[in-house]
Write a structure and sequence with these properties.
The complex is a heterodimer of chains A (about 170) and B (about 475). With about 170 residues, chain A is an all-alpha fold. Chain A is about 80% helix and about 0% strand. In chain A, helix 2 packs antiparallel against helix 3 and helix 3 packs parallel to helix 8. Chain B is mostly helical and about 475 residues long. Chain B has one domain. The chains are: A mainly alpha (about 170), B mainly alpha (about 475).
Chain lengths: ~170, ~475
């Protein structure tokens, strides 16, 4: 495996792990966004620009809007409560790395079985990232603008009402 | 030209914050202008009959070609229904008590929901459909929770959770289909599914469950009654009238026509779930005491009819399904308009606290009768024709038992809607409601418009068939490919 690919996988995996383990929602969301962008680049490097664009649309676009919308409606905890929660938070994840490693190992050892079980041959991509983004997926970009606007107006409409209630 | 269906409401939403700063009153006008524009343009295309032979000629419209947009008989009906329902929603909202400070944001969200629905209708690939479907869904979550009360939040939360499940199903289906076909456009998918084997069946199952959740078919309807009931009245009109129809029903019809075809396994699944929805939805409606909740279950039942029409797998069944899709958008909006008017005038939707309102609210009472008769399929109203076509199509396709179920459910529909009419509008005026008056014309005019469409599209059925339904026939060419 080439060095840049290793780096890209690291850029994807590290933020994804942070997203799963972070004690603060906003940190999770930001880490998830970075991880999504990393995954997009990995897919692009694997000559799968369409899949990359889809990941960017869903992971960094739509999902992010939903998360930000939800996080904007939450109220931050008091400092002492937040510190106590953080201590409690990490305890529940002690077993998780073992489970993940175990499942990963099983998948790796049986990789030939999975590859043969789903003989997908349809997705042959050759176009460049730019060509896919602007040439083939232009309509999605307009849709993404719509999603961002929904998120913005959603935060304005609900957040303003939340403030009024307080 | 078709890009305007997406860009006009999108720009309308985008300029709301600016308009709020410089001309607050103008924020009411923009959504009205946008929706009227959509009705006029789509009505003109339908009247000209220029989609009769396949889809609209877009030779002169380069951007439409680059973005692979398309308008055919089915999208024509859907765009007209979106325009009409969103127009009456906005009109009803003008006098509805919304926070003035948040009103521009509310209109922007309605316009974005229209953007999403229009985009979904003119798109020709599955992933773009998914993106626009999500615009509609997220805008709907926020609109349901708009009042920021416990019920609104609960309704929105339920919808959001089940919608998230639907989204996962849909994305998995997109991924599987992309993997076996190498593309996501309808053409590529249609070619790929012919040789796809079991993965195609798995994909259809995922898509079916996703869209059944989105449209609220039984047994995937858990979110729907709460979401409809908890929403502000105009949002209920939009949700029940068009959002669930486009998000679930339209998408299902489109994918069956363009990608999966009338495969017997798929159609049997649709037929059974459609029949269950039709009957159980009607029975559940019968037991309700809340105006909007009864209409919510009625919606579940009517969606079942559309699915049964589609599942008949014949041109007649398709025409019946598409016409009932249009009619349901109109008469269900009308009934939700009436429920909103009653709630605005009396402050309640509970049947135990209502009665004899026809005397005090003659316009609302009369339009409600038209809405209920059309829903129950009484001639010569529009609902009669669409139900008749569906029943005949089922019978001719050999599904006689399901044709009988459709007739039986229609009788239950008439029963619960007459119950509604008796509890709310007929009889002696309930104590404490003597002083109420008919709602303002801005509120009852949308109901008059919808009632008029219901009456005239029934009486002038041959004209409607010629201009609106005949182009749907051109879609059948897709099946031969």
């Amino acid at each position: 495996m080439e060095l840049h690919m290793v780096l890209l996988i690291a850029v994807t995996l590290i933020p994804m792990i942070i997203a799963a383990f972070a004690a603060e929602l906003i940190k999770s969301v930001i880490a998830l966004l970075v991880g999504s962008v990393g995954l997009t680049l990995v897919l692009f490097n694997l000559n799968a620009p369409i899949a990359g664009i889809f990941e960017l649309s869903v992971g960094a676009g739509l999902i992010a809007v939903l998360f930000i919308l939800s996080v904007s409606l939450t109220r931050p905890l008091a400092k002492e409560e937040s510190a106590e929660r953080k201590r409690q938070h990490y305890r529940r994840f002690y077993v998780l790395p073992i489970i993940i490693l175990f499942l990963g190992l099983i998948l790796y050892l049986n990789k030939d079985f999975w590859i043969n079980a789903f003989p997908f041959t349809g997705a042959q991509e050759s176009a460049s990232f730019g060509e896919v983004l602007w040439g083939r997926r232009g309509l999605d970009l307009i849709g993404q603008i719509g999603i961002i606007l929904v998120g913005v107006f959603g935060v304005i409409v609900l957040f303003r009402r939340g403030k009024m209630n307080e | 030209m078709l890009l305007a269906y997406i860009l006009v409401p999108l720009l309308g939403a985008a300029i709301m914050p600016i308009l709020r700063k410089i001309w607050q009153k103008g924020t009411d006008s923009v959504p009205i202008l946008v929706t009227v524009y959509q009705i006029i343009i789509t009505g003109w295309i339908a009247y000209q009959g220029i989609v009769l032979n396949g889809s609209l000629n877009l030779e002169r419209w380069i951007l439409d070609q680059v973005l692979a947009l398309r308008l055919d008989g089915l999208s024509l009906v859907a765009l007209l229904a979106i325009g009409l329902v969103s127009f009456v929603t906005v009109l009803f909202s003008l006098r509805y008590p919304l926070d003035e400070d948040r009103r521009p944001g509310y209109y922007a969200l309605i316009l974005l929901a229209v953007t999403g629905m229009n985009g979904l209708v003119v798109a020709t690939d599955l992933f773009s459909m998914y993106v626009f479907l999500e615009i509609v869904s997220v805008a709907s979550f926020i609109l349901i929770a708009y009042q920021y009360d416990e019920f609104g939040m609960e309704g929105s939360f339920k919808y959001m959770m089940l919608s998230a499940v639907a989204t996962v199903f849909l994305l998995v289906a997109v991924a599987l289909l992309f993997a076996i076909t190498g593309g996501v456009s309808f053409g590529e998918l249609a070619q790929g599914v012919k040789t796809g084997g079991p993965v195609v069946f798995i994909s259809f199952a995922f898509i079916f469950f996703a869209l059944a959740l989105k449209s609220g078919m039984m047994p995937f309807h858990g979110w729907l009654p709460d979401a409809y009931t908890a929403s502000p009245a105009p949002v209920s009109i939009l949700l029940a009238g068009i959002v669930t129809k486009i998000a679930g029903v339209y998408t299902m019809i489109r994918l069956v026509l363009e990608v999966f075809g009338f495969n017997s396994v798929f159609m049997n699944l649709l037929l059974v779930v459609g029949a269950v929805s039709t009957v159980l939805g009607a029975f559940f409606a019968l037991g309700q005491k809340d105006f909007k909740r009864m209409l919510a279950y009625s919606s579940i039942s009517q969606i079942g009819y559309i699915m049964m029409g589609l599942a008949a797998g014949t041109p007649l069944g398709l025409i019946g399904a598409v016409f009932h899709f249009f009619n349901h958008a109109i008469f269900k909006s009308l009934l939700f308009l009436n429920s909103g008017a009653v709630e605005t005038a009396t402050g309640t939707r509970n049947f135990d606290e209502l009665g004899g309102l026809a005397e005090k609210m003659p316009v609302t009472g009369t339009t409600s009768v038209i809405g209920l008769l059309s829903t129950a399929g009484i001639p010569p109203l529009a609902g009669f024709w669409s139900k008749l076509v569906i029943i005949v199509a089922l019978w001719m396709a050999g599904f006689k038992f399901f044709a009988f179920i459709a007739v039986f459910a229609s009788i239950i529909t008439l029963a619960y809607l007459l119950l509604l009419q008796r509890n709310v509008f007929f009889g002696k005026i309930k104590q404490g409601l003597e002083g109420i008056r008919e709602v303002s014309p801005v509120v009852y005019w949308p109901a008059i418009i919808m009632a008029a469409i219901t009456v005239f599209s029934g009486i002038l059925f041959p004209l409607v068939y010629d201009k609106l339904l005949n182009p749907v026939n051109s879609l059948l060419g897709l099946l031969a490919k």
